[in-house]
Amino acid sequence: MRCGKCCTDMVLPVMHLLFPTHYLDENGMDFYRAHGIDTMFAKNEMLEFDYKGIVYKISALGLIRPDVYLDAEGQEFYRENNLDDLLRKNGQIRLIHRCNHLAKDNSCSIYSLRPQICRDFDCAQRDDCTDVYPLEFRS
Length: 139
What we know:
The chain has nine helices and four strands. Helix content is 39%, strand content 18%. The chain is of the alpha+beta class. β2 (46-51) and β3 form a beta hairpin. It has a four-stranded antiparallel sheet. It has one domain (5-137). The chain is elongated.
């Protein structure tokens, strides 16, 4: 059995998600790219995230510029949910995603090439980690 919890949802300040080159160091950028978050913005995919216990789903670029990237209904959703407040406060969000390199069996498909940040991460530190701590996930 494999865990894979460290390759799914991650918590970070929203500005780190939106402007990674400004806020993240080299390891953070490796993690960002390994998880495919950069392509979410390049393709303007839908972001799903939890903020203060509520799950939101909005286009990646719409979160940054709702006036440009969202239709009237999307802009109303943005205003009703005070998502501009999320940006102003740089609130912590839990991005609901799955690493692009996580295989169906929860193993890492790029294990030998994984970024340093993944090598350094100790999944036993997570409060949602399973009891399974397989050797394949150790450095």
